[in-house]
Amino acid sequence: MSAIVILHAVLACELSPQPAPERLLLERAGGDALAGAIADDLQRLLPGIEHARLLLGTGLLDATEILRPGFAAHAALAELGLRLPRGHGAVIAIGAHHGRMPAAALTPAAEFSDAPMRYLPLLIEAEAEHADALGTRLEQILANAGEASARSADVLMRSYGLRLQHARYLSLTDLLALTCVQYEHAGFAAHWPLIEAALLTPARREATLSPRGARWQWTGARVALETPRAFVARTQPDPDARVHAYAAAVFELRQAAALFRAHALSLTALDDASGVQFSPAGVIEILRAPDARAAPGLHACTAPGLGIVALLLGDSAAREIEVLATPLDAAGLPGLLATLAARSDCTQPRRDAPLAEVDVQGMPWPRAPLRH
Q1: What span, in angstroms and rounded, lies between the C-alpha atoms of 59 and 154?
Q2: Contact 68, 8 (CB under 8 A)
Q3: If pLDDT is split at 50, 70 and 90, which confidence band does 369 have?
């Protein structure tokens, strides 16, 4: 038996803003009509595909769910395909059973429910003697002439209860190029080299600067980010500009963390800075050991439009702070507060005040004197 070569593609669906899709995945029995229509399209576009087997994931995924390390959605299709004998069928739709997909990587996440672009992952299993020619056609034809047929568009709309603006087939290379352009237009050009390295050359280290000049790296396993405190301490803005620089660094960090995590990339501190921990709740920087003689207090620094940008735990009167914590989003704040409470027996109420000062070490301080 000839060796099998795997080719990756997607069906890109641009949705109308209204109404929202009635469903983002199909039950097993509901995917057959869609799989048949897609197979007919690909036979028209890619002569030679009749020698291949096509596996279709019926969950409408966001681009970030497709573009994850190891191309997890396609890898899940490949793994499921191994469980099905080659004679099982030339076109196989992988659908849900009682609302659950057989692999988490094929399940659309609720956080992307408003995404205007959705993608169905397609896996083509081609025998080696046909794979080179088929792969060449895949890259040369789909980007320019990969329009889905009217029949496929109709089946898509009926199956998912949605309205389509546009549907076309793309190779995975096409999707990478499209996403790169979209990120550049959205102001995320600096983020893309790290994402691309994580996807295509994960063992290679990659370094870049954020739009504001923060240092970022792909370490070969994680994205390493410079904290706002480290950024201000390194760049040394003018004293009267430090507050703005710190708040802007928090905003940029939050954006970056959200985007990298959407691509399922783990985060860490730049240069493996000791005492700095990234978690889903936020960033915790351990600055000194707890002082058993002092009653720790908890203060929060706020900034317009950003909410709490820093939590300070420690001996406030002496400005001896044990922990600096940075919430990465509002949802993470309770988790950060719970972590700080578990670390220290802080019985005093939290005090919130606007961020008013950032010192030369990049440490943020609230407006009011830190006294109890």
Answers
A1: 17
A2: no
A3: low
* Residue closest to 366 by CA, chosen among 209, 247, 211, 228: 247
Half-sphere exposure of 217 (CA within 13 A, CB side): 15
Beta bridge partners of 129: none
* Dist. CA 154–CA 146, nearest whole Å: 16
Across the beta sheet with 206-209, the strand order is: 206-209, 215-218, 223-225, 267-269
Residue entry with tokens 């329009």: 147
The alpha carbon torsion through 257, 213, 217, 227 (nearest 10 deg) reads -50
The residue written with tokens 């390493």 in the block is 224
What would the pLDDT profile of 191-211 be if each residue is shown by its tens digit? 999 999 999 999 999 999 999
Position 148: which residue type? A
The model carries a pTM of 0.92
Assigned token pair, 177 = 């190029």
Secondary structure (DSSP) of 267-298? EEEGGG-TTEEE-SSEEEEE-S---TTS--EE
For strands 320-327 and 307-315, give the pairing.
Answer: antiparallel
DSSP designation for 50: G
E strands present in the chain: 4-15, 53-57, 91-94, 117-127, 164-171, 206-209, 215-218, 223-225, 267-269, 276-278, 282-286, 297-303, 307-315, 320-327, 351-358, 364-366
From the centroid of its chain, how far is CA 4? Answer: 31
Please compute Rg for the chain using Cα positions: 25
- β-bridge partners, 116: none
Specify the amino acid at residue 331: A
If you write DSSP's letter for every residue of 123-182 in order, what string do you get?
EEEEEHHHHHHHHHHHHHHHHHH-BPPHHHHHHHHHHHT--EEEEEEEEHHHHHHHHHHH
pLDDT per residue as tens digits for the range 132-184: 999 999 999 998 899 999 999 999 999 999 999 999 999 999 999 999 999 99
What three-state secondary structure class fits 190? coil
* Closest by Cα among 341, 278, 292, 350 to 320: 292
Predicted confidence (pLDDT) per residue in 28-50, tens digit: 888 999 999 999 999 999 988 88
